[in-house]
Design a protein that fits this description.
- With 183 residues, this protein is α+β, with helices and mostly antiparallel strands.
- 26% of the residues lie in helices and 32% in strands.
- The protein has helices at residues 77-85, 125-132, 144-161, 168-179; strands at residues 2-3, 14-22, 25-32, 37-42, 46-47, 66-76, 95-99, 104-114, 138-142.
- β2 (14-22) and β3 form a beta hairpin.
């Protein structure tokens, strides 16, 4: 398949591993034969898809493309209530650690994070996108990789809206590369 992407991805054989719904899009996780990497592809951006008879299908273990983490977060009551009504975690229900004041709670949820498509470390991209909808009603405390990505995004938003240096075009242009670790 070929892929319409900001990254340079050449046409190559793929072995689909799982289809999932991320960020309001249907995506397929594929093993890229030539790159020997796993990557999510938005189905709508896959082009020239054809059966490849020259390469056998390669099945990967889930441990090869995702890892389990504990999301620990400080949240407003409405976010806690939302998380208690929907399953965002992997298997265990949300755990309330403490109530810090009338509207502020510390919670824990077991989550799965995909592994980065170029590095063997957790990729918080999709989960950070999901948590972004809660804006200033959540503070991610753990895992560190997710907290760092939320912090990076907050700083970039600050630079767009509140810095006077007018680097907004540069900030917006390079943000997707920073999110994926390409810088």
């Amino acid at each position: 398949a070929q892929y319409d992407s900001i990254h340079d991805i050449a046409k190559q054989p793929l072995s689909p591993q799982k289809i999932t719904y991320l960020n309001h899009q249907v995506v397929v996780l594929c093993f890229m034969h030539e790159d020997k990497k796993l990557k999510f592809f938005e189905i709508a951006r896959l082009k020239s898809v054809a059966v490849c008879k020259s390469s056998p299908y390669i099945q990967k273990s889930p441990d090869d493309f995702e890892s389990k983490h504990t999301l620990k977060a400080r949240v407003h009551t409405w976010v806690k209530n939302y998380f208690s009504q929907v399953q965002i975690g992997h298997s265990k229900p949300m755990k309330v650690i403490e109530q810090e004041d009338k509207y502020c709670w510390v919670i824990e949820i077991e989550i799965m994070l995909g592994k980065h498509f170029k590095h063997d470390r957790p990729d918080p991209f999709y989960f950070a996108n999901f948590l972004g909808q809660f804006a200033d009603s959540i503070e991610v405390l753990e895992p560190e990789c997710l907290r760092n990505e939320m912090l990076r995004r907050a700083k970039r938003n600050y630079s767009i809206y509140l810095d006077d240096d007018n680097n907004n075009i540069k900030t917006i242009a390079k943000s997707p590369f920073e999110m994926t670790g390409e810088k």
